[in-house]
Design brief:
Layout: E1 3-4, E2 7-8, E3 17-23, E4 30-36, E5 43-46, H1 61-75, E6 80-83, H2 110-126, E7 132-135, H3 141-147, E8 151-157, E9 166-169, H4 172-181, H5 184-187, E10 196-197, H6 212-216, E11 223-227, H7 236-252, E12 259-263, H8 268-278, H9 287-294, E13 295-298, H10 303-311, E14 315-318, H11 329-335, E15 340-343, E16 363-366, H12 369-381, H13 385-399, H14 401-419, H15 432-442
Parallel strand pairs: 5-6, 5-7, 7-8, 8-9, 9-10, 11-12, 11-14, 12-13, 14-15, 15-16
Antiparallel strand pairs: 1-2, 3-4
């Protein structure tokens, strides 16, 4: 039998429970006893057609979430069966470094039909009543329905098309947006009361924090970081302009100018030229020189390079100009003890905006260029190691895999308990109002 962390993994027939301390009635001693719920089914998860559940494919956000979800649920005692690799996909021969392949997300696409055909026989064979099918994307919901699943959940939703009966969103703001636009007909008249919000999870040991003195003395000079696609809606121009304006103030204090390190897809010089044109800057042959004087460009980064860029940054810019579902890089910055300078809407109101006083200002919510500028000046001149330590500790308590796995476990139990309830003559699950009425009648 498989093992997990030195402990025997739960078999299909075993119950998932939590240990609780109780007082033994015989001798008054405190003992640990297992509090169990009903038998929990297995979790089934299918990988995407173009990736595999291995670190080499972690550039795909969906696959990265799936890898962490599998780890978390197995550590919580669930049996997780995954369907990935050559056996279940016709595209897996694609090398891991071939990022962002042009695939369709429509169920009718041959890629998905082939994946269904390869997966369905094993899925049906492994399926037992009470099992859970965890969808990475909504395109996988029909497969679960064909196989006979009732407990179909959709994980970490940061897109608009939701198809599963039980959905988990990355943020409450994104949940509200999807309800308003994509699920309007569904939600008018009743609430999907078992939908939930669970933030993205992170392995906190993968992030390191540098001291203020280390950040100021880093080779090449201290810098602000922009870690996103280099496009307008990510706030590229705002980050550039804020650094230019902040440097004017820093130099008046005798402090060296900040650089702006940018990592992600896109072309910085062209975008900066567009920015200057739109804001009536005089265009001269020195434009490219201006860019190179304070902008240091990187392609898409990962691993040690990404970790070190975050570790030594004075601040992270995320002036997102649209309603982002989670924008996880700002959490990675805070896990590195780096304050995030963000726009003041969407998920940022749920993370930075709700941070307690003891988090010591993990970030700055901004609307105007002067606010972005002042936030960067504050980080460069007055930020302390104590503040950064507090920021890191708070982020670790909110976004660790340890916390998120408990949230997922609790939610999955609720879903299973609901679908196991008696059904009426039409086959519908008894509603909560019926349960209340029944309880009142019993009294």
């Amino acid at each position: 039998m498989a093992t997990n962390g030195g402990k025997r993994a739960r078999s299909e027939e075993e119950e998932v429970g939590t240990s609780v301390e109780q007082t033994d009635e015989d001798n008054g001693s405190v003992v640990k006893r297992q509090r169990t719920n009903r038998v929990m089914g297995k979790i089934h998860l299918q990988c995407l057609p173009h990736t595999d559940l291995i670190p080499e494919y972690a550039w795909c956000a969906y696959t990265q979430k799936a890898i962490r979800f599998v780890e978390m649920m197995r550590s919580e005692g669930f049996t997780v069966i995954t369907y990935s690799g050559d056996k279940y996909s016709s595209m897996i021969h694609r090398p891991p470094e071939a990022q962002n392949p042009n695939i369709s997300w429509q169920v009718s696409d041959p890629i998905w039909r082939q994946t269904y055909e390869k997966t369905l026989p094993d899925l049906k064979q492994n399926f037992m009543p009470g099992d859970i099918f965890a969808c990475i994307v909504s395109t996988q919901v029909p497969l679960a329905q064909i196989a006979g699943f009732v407990n179909i959940i959709e994980l970490g939703i940061g897109y608009s098309d939701v198809a599963a009966p039980f959905a988990c969103f990355e943020s409450a703001s994104w949940q509200a947006s999807v309800y308003r636009h994509s699920l309007r007909d569904v939600t008018c008249g009743h609430v999907r009361r078992l939908d939930t919000v669970i933030p993205n999870s992170y392995r906190i040991h993968e992030y390191e924090m540098a001291s203020i003195s280390e950040r100021r003395s880093v080779q090449g000079g201290h810098y602000a970081l922009f870690l996103a696609r280099k496009i307008d809606v990510k706030g590229l121009q705002i980050a550039m302009a804020a650094v230019v304006e902040a440097n004017k103030i820093l130099q008046s204090f005798g402090v060296a100018a900040l650089k702006l390190k940018m990592a992600g897809g896109g072309n910085v010089p062209n975008t900066f030229v567009d920015y200057m044109k739109r804001n009536n800057y005089s265009m001269t042959e020195q434009t490219q020189t201006i860019v190179s004087s304070f902008v240091e460009e990187y392609p898409v980064v990962s691993g040690e390079l990404k970790k070190n860029l975050l570790k030594y940054a004075t601040a992270l810019f995320m002036p997102t100009q649209y309603m982002g579902p989670f924008e996880g890089v700002h959490v990675e910055a805070m896990l590195s003890g780096v304050p995030a300078i963000t726009s003041s809407h969407g998920v940022y109101l749920e993370t930075i905006g709700k941070a307690p006083v003891e988090a010591a200002v993990p970030g700055y919510l901004c609307q105007t260029l002067s606010e972005y500028r002042d936030a960067l000046v504050q980080c460069a001149l007055y930020r302390t190691d104590e503040q950064n330590n507090a920021t890191q500790k708070w982020a670790q308590s909110e976004f660790s895999t340890e916390r998120c796995k408990r949230l997922y476990s609790r939610w999955i139990r609720k879903v299973c308990e609901m679908t196991a309830k008696p059904r009426n003559k039409k086959g519908e699950i008894v509603r909560i109002v019926d349960e209340v009425a029944e309880a009142l009648m019993m009294e």
